[in-house]
Amino acid sequence: MTSTAINFNQVAYLLITGASRGIGQRMAIETSRKFKPGSIVVLLARSASGLESTRAEILECNPHINVVTSSVDLSNASKQLLEDIIDKSLSKTPVGSFELAAIIHNVGTIGNVERKAVDMSDRQEWEEYFATNLFTVGVLNSCFLQKFRECAKKLVVNVTSKACLVPFKSMGFYCAGKAAREMYFKVLADEENDLVVLNYSPGPVDTDMTVDIQGRSNAEEIRNYFKGLRETTTILTTHQTTEKFISILEAGRFSSGDHVDYYD
Ligand SMILES: NC(=O)c1ccc[n+]([C@@H]2O[C@H](COP(=O)([O-])OP(=O)(O)OC[C@H]3O[C@@H](n4cnc5c(N)ncnc54)[C@H](OP(=O)(O)O)[C@@H]3O)[C@@H](O)[C@H]2O)c1
Asked: Do the domain assignments include residue 68?
């Protein structure tokens, strides 16, 4: 069995989605800090200014790598656009020159938490939710793996959630999306023995997403859960969860395709 331990101190190509803020921004900064000169980091999200601030912070800690930003709406990005983004970011660098090729599928939206499952009858709402959180994730992942076929070490990370295992009231779109998305990555891990696939569940983290759930969820117990975490300051910071994420990958004490939680 191939080792799942990842050495970030290499010439790497990293593509990360949802890198303009929150968990994705911190993961991009902390992993990039370790890369060797000649590495390429590609940051995707909609907010150009958010991406630019992530880029600036990465270059402050590691000026010898190349950071490419691409402002893109992943709810409707075509396969062609995603392939073009990867091709442009490489600018003729042969993929075989990277010691590590990594993709972090961090993008995620909470969906309409004002709806209960019984009221989820709007087909367009389902389609829009799954477009961002599942369909583009799968398309992008395939584009990436086809491009980096020759690269010796390949890492695929899905930022998942406990919500893919346990139902949470008001989070019908989110729970269904995370469950489907994680199963796709488990099938991928089963089929491709040369990949390291990690489904990382970051725990409850202080980001815009949890502020939004706390403010808008139709379920009082969900609003109170996040309120309680904030009041007791037991909600995690993006730094805490990213530190754990990197230590899990560096130690490699998981099998490809596993779901590993911050609290495991
Ligand atoms: N926070 C938590 O407690 C928690 C717990 C478990 C799992 N997670 C998972 O962790 C991941 C990150 O969550 P977070 O809390 O950091 O969320 P966040 O603060 O809301 O950040 C979401 C990121 O996704 C990007 N994004 C959203 N819609 C997009 C779109 N249509 N096209 C392109 N990019 C888009 C956002 O950038 P733009 O707005 O600039 O596009 C942003 O960079 C998600 O997959 C989430 O499900 C979070």
From this structure: yes
Domain that holds residue 182: 12-206+238-261
Q: How far is the CA of 17 from the centre of ligand 1 (A)?
A: 9
CATH classification at residue 53: 3.40.50.720
CA 96 to centroid of ligand 1, rounded, Å: 31
Predicted confidence at residue 108, as pLDDT, reads 98
| pLDDT attached to residue 2 | 72
74 within ligand 1 shell (Cβ under 6 A)? yes
Contacts of 92 (CB under 8 A, 6+ apart): none
Task: Compute the distance from residue 110 Cα to the ligand 1 centre, in Å.
Answer: 8
Question: Which parts of the chain have pLDDT scores under 70?
Answer: 1
CA–centroid distance for 134 within its chain: 12
Angle in degrees, 0-180, between the axes of helices 208-216 and 220-231, rounded to the nearest 10? 130
Domain membership flag for residue 87 = yes
Provide the number of structural domains found in the chain.
Answer: 1
Beta sheet of 154-159, edge-to-edge order? 66-71, 40-45, 12-17, 100-105, 154-159, 195-201, 259-261
Residue 165: per-residue pLDDT: 98
Whether residue 251 is contained in a domain is answered as: yes
Q: Which of 46, 81, 164, 262 to mutate for ligand 1's pocket (most ligand atoms within 8 Å of CB)?
A: 46
Residue 244 placed within a domain:
yes
Q: Is the CB of 207 under 6 A from ligand 1?
A: yes
Q: 22: CA distance to ligand 1 center in Å? A: 7
